[in-house]
Write a structure and sequence with these properties.
single chain; 739 residues; mainly beta; Immunoglobulin-like; 5-stranded antiparallel β-sheet; 57 strands; disordered C terminus; signal; Ig-like_dom_sf; Ig_Fc_receptor
């Protein structure tokens, strides 16, 4: 019974391949390939009296040494590779490089009719049968039989060919018939058994080791050989364990390499060999292979962690390994204090890994592992597992000496601390990402950093904690260093020495330093006028529309929450009234007008004194007051009556010096300005008369200046005349002041 591996092979029978195959077989065994016999002529049966030449061959092309000849199993002689025989028998031979050949039965018969078969014949070969009589010319018909059944009738052929014979027990014979004197005759040959030789012997399975160590490789070889006359036939091979095909089935090589043998691979092994054409399959005997297992020994547990440190929250890898041991090993991991194992793996390896994800503080302890390959578990030594935890995000706190704002010069404490993390911890302090300094906490906890504040220390502060397991940065904490305000400075705009009623005055208050926001207060004689804020620093303004009550002392105050600073007092005085027309006259025009009025006043004064001499003197009057609270207009009713009791001064003109005193007065009309002029008589004895005497004894002279009107017929170019030409002096007329 055969177990074919169904895979077609390629026919590539070469003598070289056969020789290599046979040579490799010799290396593994002391058994040599068989020798074989050749017959000349190539018939195993012949008539008695004829001779047959026997030639002994082996798988080598040239014979070496003498050949051992045998007949019916008995040693015949040693001689050359070729001998002649004329006696029946079972002949065989052997060379020095081969085993004994299959015997060839050669018969010498004295019968009238014999049946001959060609030689040599191998399994699957075609064979020629020849029915031969002593008088061939008398034979008319030949009939061939196999097991007494006609297989061929022949009338004139010399031989009959049978295809693909096999080694069976079939018997062949033939008959020959003819006619002589109208009498039909017939002869029958002796039965013949065709001698079919093996194409190749049954293969022999050989293993490189019948008791391999588990885990080691084994080489299987299926040994057989072809006779040199059939070396062109391709052989294929198939290997089995029990009844299971190994590898890919039929292969061209007689050798199969098993890379690793395991304990479960123990069993019965055998092989098959087949000729592709003809289809002849033969199998080997079974060979027992027992795989030897080595017990595990020297079990060891080690920890693998990133960077060589076991970090809380990271994965823990436990590696269990054995120094020796084969086959399937069962690994298990354990922690002291827990009955339940942590993990279990079964694999064909000397080591295994167990990964514990995201270890926590409770995972610390003593660990061990065990290994077993059916000889009992072997335990490793216990190792202690300690965890290091990375730092949490630190918290930065600022401790200041005062509850509210911090000011320049204060010493603040920056405190950086994490809630968790394995020591030692290195802390760093930052101001706007610039390192201020660092400090270490060897036993954990937090650290402090003291900072004496200057104006540059305002901004965002942060800190960093690092214990070599990763740095964590705190949130930014803003710190505002407040600078107290300096003494403010109060200024007026416009910055004139004197102002008049109706002016819009801007009070400007500003400090040179101080942190915003700053609140400014404005005071008039310590009465609050108002306040305004400068959110971004700088100064602030307060606009004031002046009235007569606004004369006096002004000041301002500045406050940014660190104390109020008060400016120095600034005094504001009024010198007269103002109208819209006067306000808009430029300073240059007023100067020119006053000059013209001075000249007119001098001429008028001379004329006035002349008139007074004729009329008997001036009427006595008081000095007018020009307080901003009073508004006076000149009277147009004419000059007042002269005081009859006023003394007449008769001092010589040479001893008298006129001292004009004048001021501009608005009579209430928009287009009219007049000047009041007083003349003082100075003598050498009394060079500076008092104002009182001057007010009583003398009437002021009055000069009017009237604004010119533009005539409708004037050309446009005249509209751009100098402003000074828009005024003219009126004729001097005695006018009285309307008091």
């Amino acid at each position: 019974m055969s177990f074919p591996c169904h895979r077609p092979g390629q026919v590539a029978g070469l003598l070289q391949l056969l020789l290599l195959t046979l040579a490799s077989g010799q290396e593994q065994s002391a058994t040599f390939p068989k020798a074989f016999l050749l017959l000349t002529p190539p018939w195993s049966t012949t008539f008695k009296g004829e001779k047959v030449t026997l030639t002994c061959k082996d798988h080598h092309s040239l014979a070496q040494g003498y050949i051992s000849w045998y007949n019916n199993g008995d040693f015949l002689k040693k001689g050359p590779e070729t001998i002649q025989i004329n006696e029946s028998g079972r002949y065989s031979c052997k060379t020095q490089r081969s085993s004994l050949s299959d015997p060839v039965h050669v018969e010498f018969l004295s019968d009238w009719l014999i049946l001959q078969a060609s030689h040599p014949v191998f399994e699957g070969d075609d064979v020629d049968l020849r029915c031969r009589g002593k008088k061939e010319k008398d034979i008319n018909e030949k009939i061939y039989y196999r097991n007494n059944k006609v297989i061929r009738r022949d009338y004139n052929s010399e031989v009959v060919r049978l295809h693909s014979v096999s080694r069976d027990n079939s018997k062949y014979h033939c008959t020959a018939s003819g006619e002589s004197f109208w009498i039909r005759w017939e002869e029958i040959s002796e039965p013949l058994k065709i001698q079919v030789q093996e194409l190749f012997p049954h293969p022999v399975l050989r293993a490189s080791s019948s008791e391999p160590i588990e885990g080691s490789p084994v080489s299987l070889k299926c040994e057989t050989w072809l006779p040199p006359l059939r070396s062109h036939i391709q052989l294929q091979f198939c290997f089995f364990r029990e009844d299971k095909v190994l590898g890919s089935g039929w292969i061209d090589s007689p050798e199969l390499q098993i890379l690793t043998m395991w304990n479960e691979d123990s069993g019965s092994y055998w092989c098959q060999a087949k000729a592709v054409t003809p289809n002849i399959i033969k199998k080997s005997l079974r060979s027992r292979i027992r795989v030897q297992r080595i017990p595990v020994s020297d079990v060891n547990l080690e920890i693998q962690s990133p960077g060589g440190q076991l970090i809380e929250g990271k994965d823990l890898v436990l590696i269990c390994s054995v120094a020796k041991g084969t086959g399937t090993v069962t690994f298990s991991w354990h922690r002291e204090g827990t009955e339940r194992r942590l993990g279990r793996k079964i694999q064909r390896a000397l080591s295994a890994e167990l990964q514990i994800a995201a270890v926590r503080g409770q995972d610390a302890g003593r660990y061990y592992c065990s290994a077993d390959n059916l000889y009992g578990p072997i335990l490793s030594k216990r190792i202690r597992v300690t965890l290091r935890s990375p730092v949490s995000r630190p918290v930065l706190t600022v401790r200041a000496p005062r509850a509210r704002a911090v000011v320049v010069g204060d010493v603040v404490e920056l405190r950086c601390e994490t809630q968790s993390g394995s020591p030692p911890i290195l802390y760093r302090f930052y101001h706007e990402d610039v390192t201020l300094g660092s400090s270490s906490a060897p036993s954990g906890g937090g650290v402090s950093f003291n900072l004496s504040l200057t104006t540059e220390h305002s901004g965002n502060y942060s800190c960093e904690a690092n214990n070599s397991l990763g740095a964590q940065h705190s949130e930014a904490v803003p710190l505002r260093v407040t600078v107290p305000v300096s003494r403010p400075v109060l200024t007026f705009n416009p910055a004139r020495a004197q102002v008049v009623v109706g002016d819009l005055l801007e009070l400007r208050c500003e400090v040179q330093r101080g942190s915003p926001p700053i609140l400014y207060w404005f005071y008039h004689e310590d009465v609050i006028l108002g306040n305004t804020s400068a959110p971004f620093g700088g100064g602030a303004s307060f606009n004031l529309s002046l009235t007569t009550e606004h004369s006096g002392n002004y000041s301002c105050g500045a406050d940014n929450g660190l104390g109020v600073q008060r400016s120095y007092m600034v005094t504001l005085n009024f010198t007269g009234l103002s109208t819209n027309k006067v306000i808009h006259i430029t300073v240059g025009i007023i100067g020119w007008l006053l000059s013209m009025l001075g000249l007119a006043a001098t001429a008028s004064l001379v004329s006035h004194f002349r008139t007074q001499r004729k009329s008997g003197g001036l009427r006595a009057t008081g000095t007018p007051s020009y307080s901003p609270k009073e508004h006076r207009e000149p009277s147009r009713s004419g000059p007042s009556n002269t005081d009859p009791h006023r003394p007449i001064h008769s001092e010589p003109a040479a001893l008298m010096e006129l001292q004009p005193v004048y001021s501009n007065v608005s009579p209430g009309h928009d287009n009219l300005v007049y000047s009041q002029i007083w003349s003082s008589h100075h003598t050498k004895e009394n060079p500076a008369p008092s104002p009182k005497t001057h007010q009583k004894d003398e009437e002021p002279a009055i000069i009017y200046s009237e604004v010119k009107k533009a005539h409708p017929d004037d050309h446009e170019g005249q509209a751009h005349e100098d402003a000074a030409e828009n005024y003219e002096n009126l004729p001097c007329a005695p006018l009285a002041l309307d008091r």
